[in-house]
Amino acid sequence: MKNIADYRNKKILVLGLAKSGVSAALLLHELGAIVTVNDQKPFSENPEAQALLEKGIKVICGEHPEDLLDEGFQLVVKNPGIPYSNFLIEDALSRGIPIITEVELAYKISDADFIGITGTNGKTTTTTLIYEMLKEGQKNPLIAGNIGKVASGVAREATADHKIVIELSSFQLMGIREFRPKIAVITNLYEAHLDYHGTRENYVNAKKNIYKNQKEEDFLILNFDQEECTQLAAETKATVIPFSTEQYLENGVSVKDGYVYFKGEKVIECNKIVLPGKFNLENILASVAAAKLSGVSNAAIEKVLTTFQGVRHRLQFVRNFNGRLFYNDSKATNILATRMALTSFDQPIILLAGGLDRGNGFEDLIPYLHNVKSLIAFGETKEKLLKTGQKAGIENLHAVNNVEEAVPLAYSLSQPGDVILLSPACASWDQYKNFEIRGDIFINAVHKLV
């Protein structure tokens, strides 16, 4: 860790706690900053704030005081989830106070290079694959961000021999100033988080920040199957490495004659890859690019791709039971994610779907239901889904109370060779605290089958 003097004796406000806020406050305090933490949770119910106070850090809890910025702060470190429409953030901007997220702090103190991954879909799978490939290739990776430890905590541990592989959200990327990954990946760009960003343009601009500080000796891995991503190649100073599932790219990563190629070199036969689906192939190509640029051997890449069965709850292979293949895609909390899952299989599918009713219909699923032989619906949206299934011509339509009931029914309706797929197309909050709990219940129910 670099013991930098950039923050020494500066008055800094850490706005919002959670893991990233706690880590940022402790780090800044150690670097000699005069830190104040402000969090909405009352002090009596806030063990994190209590622990920071014991360290000598000033804490203000239970509200965001309107006059808070009158204390003369020189920097605000914002929790990524706090929108820029927050009145304190707007006040800080009007006063010209810089606003960063904890990722920027991690970069400032890190002795290790960063490999940063962003995009609308596939971030977690791509980040995990890159980490596993670098680990198999003995490149000393550390994983950070939304799926690992807090970035500044990881950066504390990192040496120059490490590589930090980090998943980055648009929320985090809005708060960077100097952050510069050696390798950056944009998996794809779709419309998302408009409640936070306001417009698609704002959302895409936030994603673009991943490469705004890159130079010619850095690399930007882009999805050339998307015109919007292709156009970014003209905007960056970095060396662009394109990937595509649809066209052969001599200077990038692509598929030809059943093999994955990196710059004309055969890397792995596609039939050996365990993860199903075209969208996962995109994630794989991006990961291969990052691994090859990091000096990982083809043998190490092949070892990972022939054994990696998916990130938990993201089209995760669960079990082959009597010839039925069970997949847990509980993270599919919207129609787009379920569409992508359905296109991953050529076999007959028994689809388990349903959850929180956000007022939308499911007609957009109809063109993707042609392989679905049975639909089992649950949750608040079950009636809507059954009507959609009827319109799609699915003959076997069933309603159940929950995921646990759906699994044995799905098995009873199936035949060897069928895929039994949990891909709800809905959030879980009508019945389950989060999608992870929903997916775990599915997994447990699958393993109870005898």
Automatic annotation (TrEMBL):
Where is this protein found? Cytoplasm
Sorted UniProt keywords: ATP-binding, Cell cycle, Cell division, Cell shape, Cell wall biogenesis/degradation, Cytoplasm, Ligase, Nucleotide-binding, Peptidoglycan synthesis
Q: Where does this protein hold ATP? A: G119, T120, N121, G122, K123, T124, T125
User: Which superkingdom?
Assistant: Bacteria
What this protein catalyses is: UDP-N-acetyl-alpha-D-muramoyl-L-alanine + D-glutamate + ATP = UDP-N-acetyl-alpha-D-muramoyl-L-alanyl-D-glutamate + ADP + phosphate + H(+)
| Entry-linked Gene3D superfamilies | Mur ligase, C-terminal domain (3.90.190.20), Mur-like, catalytic domain (3.40.1190.10), NAD(P)-binding Rossmann-like Domain (3.40.50.720)
Q: In which broad location class does this protein mainly occur, judging by the first location in its UniProt entry?
A: cytoplasm
What pathway does the annotation place this protein in?
Cell wall biogenesis; peptidoglycan biosynthesis
One Pfam family, short name: Mur_ligase_M
Q: Which SUPFAM superfamilies match?
A: MurCD N-terminal domain (SSF51984), MurD-like peptide ligases, catalytic domain (SSF53623), MurD-like peptide ligases, peptide-binding domain (SSF53244)
Which EC number(s) does the record attach to this protein?
6.3.2.9
Question: Domain named Mur ligase central: which ranges?
Answer: 117-291
Which part of the chain is the Mur ligase C-terminal domain? 313-426
Q: What sort of enzyme, by top EC class, is this? A: ligase
Can you name one GO molecular function term for this protein? Answer: UDP-N-acetylmuramoylalanine-D-glutamate ligase activity
Task performed by this protein: Cell wall formation. Catalyzes the addition of glutamate to the nucleotide precursor UDP-N-acetylmuramoyl-L-alanine (UMA).
The record's similarity note reads: Belongs to the MurCDEF family.
Q: What PANTHER family does the database record attribute to this sequence?
A: UDP-N-ACETYLMURAMOYLALANINE--D-GLUTAMATE LIGASE
User: What is the name attached to this protein's record?
Assistant: UDP-N-acetylmuramoylalanine--D-glutamate ligase
Kindly list the organism's lineage: Bacteria, Bacillati, Bacillota, Bacilli, Bacillales
Gene symbol here is murD
